[in-house]
Amino acid sequence: MLVVASLFTAVTTTVADQPDDIPLIGFDFDNGFSTNQTTVISGSIEDEVKPASVTWSIVASEPYLVELDSGDFSDILEASDSSGSRPIWTWSLEIDVAEHSPCTCYLTVTVETASEGFTQSHRVLFLGDTSRSAIIVDSPEPGDWVHGFISVSGWSMYPMTWTTPELRLFAKPASSSIDACSTEADSDMSAHLSIIIPDGEFSESLDISGLEDGWHSLYAENYDPSGVTYSQGCVPIQVNNLAPSISIEGPDHSLEGASDLFFDASATDDPVWGREELHYMWVLRKPSHSGQTPLQIVMGQDKGTMAIPTGSSGDYTLTLVVTDAGGISSTMVKIFTIQNVVPKAIASLDDSSIEDGSRIKLSPGSEWMLDASLSEDSENDQSGLRCVWKIDHQPVYEGCIRALSWPPDAGDEVILTLDVIDDDDDYGSISVLLVHPEAAEPLPYSLIVLVISTLFMLSAIMLRYRSSDDSSSIPKWKSDE
Questions:
Q1: CA nearest 322: which of 405, 246, 237, 260?
Q2: What is the pLDDT of residue 160?
Q3: Cα 445 from chain centroid?
Q4: What residues does 220 pair with on adjacent strands?
Q5: For residue 134, what is the enclosing H or E element?
Q6: What is the pLDDT of residue 227?
Q7: How far apart are the C-alpha atoms of 224 and 52, rounded to whole Å?
Q8: Could you give the angle at the alpha carbon of 23 between the alpha carbons of 22 and 25, nearest 5°?
Q9: 198, 199, 64, 218: which is closest to 139 by C-alpha?
Q10: DSSP one-letter code for 42
Q11: Which residues partner with 380 through β-bridges?
Q12: 446: part of which helix (H) or strand (E)?
């Protein structure tokens, strides 16, 4: 019958987080100890303090897992000399072979610590003329997540053989953790992951990349078509070869501002195991400015969305690494741009709006108030705008509200320029032509054109008149009489 029990799946198992190192359980005899007579076996426990409880049990593997005997070592532990840093306590046990043989038995020693954790270790005992072989699978442990290649290790031995021993390793899909290892499997009807010749301890690398995701029963079988030495062990495992499928919803482009950009990866899923235990890690970088140095890292099982402020323009990469419960991860990189909003320069001169390209004659006086405080930009940059005033393209003032004085070395006209600059050094500009209040007004262009036209017409009339006088004085030829 199928041998399914925790004793076949771990030589040492710790259940509970320990504040110190786990106890070490030692045996003074080898695995596969064989005897035909009553004998005393012994071992030791190494730990920082004396264990709270040490118990033992003997289980027979045929035809079912049946506990034959059990007891408590706690009261008989004896302190022993130790060459290490931790104390050692020894125990001993007398086994009545006549009471249990023939038996392929498993001795389990369980150490319980004060922190309520426990550690177990197992040994195979061949008592009397037993023929059934024995298997202990140390790894993987029940419920382990596995993918790609896994290492299967343990111990296997036939107490008697008449053909070459054969250890078959194979796997069968299961519908759930409850279904896994619930029945015996036929190795003759199964594809083998590996076949080895056992002789005590074994370790084998298995290629499970071809297995579909889901629960599987991993079988280790000491094969014997006659059934005399046959033994089979099983470990439930979670095969996880498929990586999560990432889906990110979010913009590729945005304008700079005070709001956030939202990226949603909540539709990311694992094809078989679902999204409940997915772990997200978002890494934000800005290659256009800070290179590959992360600006922000957010991680956690409940981090399916990411909010990114739009206060700084540039080209960004948002990397999402999603890892499933079995440790397989997928990566997706989202590239997006936050575009800077160019400031809009708005200014007034003595409370009168300045229009770009206009000509303004200043009112009488020695100072005139300049005000660019109403210049506009995105909300995040509005408070940090810089205003630079230029006269004939040379900076003379900085500040959005200033008093203008006429430059002493300037003529009757100057060009006034306002540059409104944001934190990205983008700027908006307006320029006007300023005329000094004491400057003489030039003749209107239309009047100049009229005068020139009038002079041209008078000139044409005079030339016409002179031409008429000259033609009347020309003598005429007379015919000869």
A1: 246
A2: 85
A3: 72
A4: 169, 233
A5: strand 134-139
A6: 86
A7: 43
A8: 135
A9: 218
A10: E
A11: none
A12: helix 445-472
Q: Residue 224 is encoded by which pair of tokens?
A: 């014997």
Where do runs of H (alpha helix) occur along 337-425?
A: 379-382
pTM above 0.90, yes or no: no
SS3 state at 402? strand
Q: In this structure, are strands 386-391 and 394-398 parallel, antiparallel, or unpaired?
A: antiparallel
Count the neighbouring beta carbons within 10 Å of the beta carbon of residue 71.
12
Q: Which residues are registered as beta bridge partners of 403?
A: 369
CA distance 185 to 181: 9
Mean pLDDT by 10 residues, the chain (481 residues): 42 44 91 93 91 91 77 90 86 90 92 81 93 93 95 93 89 95 92 92 95 96 90 95 95 92 95 92 92 92 94 94 94 96 95 94 93 93 94 94 92 94 93 89 70 82 69 54 46
> Is 234 within 8 Å of 221 (Cβ atoms)?
no
Tokens representing residue 219 in the block: 């079988």
Residues 6+ apart with CB under 8 A from 69: 57, 58, 99, 100
pLDDT of residue 84: 76
Structure tokens at 202: 């074994």
382, two tokens: 């509005």
All residues at 6 or more sequence positions from 19 whose CB lies less than 8 Å from its CB, including other chains: 115
CA 62 to CA 234: how far, in whole Å?
Answer: 15
pLDDT value of residue 135: 93
End-to-end CA distance of the chain: 166
At 172, the amino acid letter reads K
d(CA 108, CA 122): 5
CA 42, distance to chain mean position in Å, is 51
Closest CA to 142 of 38, 277, 13, 252: 13
The pLDDT score that the predictor gives to residue 154 is 95
| DSSP H or E segment with residue 98 | helix 97-100
Q: Given this model, what pLDDT does residue 196 score?
A: 94
Structure token pair of residue 139: 């790894």
Please say whether the beta carbons of 103 and 130 come within 8 A. yes
Q: Which two tokens mark 6?
A: 């925790």
State the virtual CA torsion across 459, 462, 464, 467 in degrees, nearest 10. Answer: -130
Note the pLDDT of residue 281: 97
d(CA 39, CA 142): 33
For residue 354, give the DSSP letter.
P
Among all chains, which residue has been given the structure tokens 């021993």?
165
Q: Which helix (H) or strand (E) holds 44?
A: strand 39-46
Say what the pLDDT of residue 89 is.
93
Q: Are strands 413-421 and 13-15 parallel, antiparallel or unpaired?
A: unpaired
Of 234, 230, 235, 233, nearest to 165 by C-alpha is: 230
pLDDT computed for residue 141 by the predictor:
93
What backbone torsions phi and psi does residue 207 show, to the nearest 5 degrees? -90, 105
Query: Hey, what are 210's tokens?
Result: 């071809």
Query: Scanning the structure block, which residue is given the tokens 């005429």?
Result: 476
